[in-house]
């Protein structure tokens, strides 16, 4: 379930939802997008947190407006959940 459907309200989830609608995306596109400006109070911090959680990737550690406007931000595919092994039946 994505943000538009009422899913998780975290900034990282909102970033994923917004990026899916803009793919491929650059930092400049996100920074200058009015909808992103209204959703994310701290875009750079949100992107850094999402990168740390391996939700997305981009070159470098810190993105700065102007200098990194052409830096491409790539949304990583969601990992496939692994089913937990079944518990042994009680004896």
UniProtKB/TrEMBL annotation:
SMART domains: Costars. Coiled coil: none annotated. Residues 13-76 form the Costars domain. InterPro entries: Costars, Costars_dom, Costars_sf. It holds the Pfam family Costars. One of its GO terms (biological process) is regulation of actin filament-based process. Signal peptide: none annotated. Belongs to the costars family. This is Costars domain-containing protein. The lineage of its organism: Eukaryota, Viridiplantae, Streptophyta, Embryophyta, Tracheophyta.
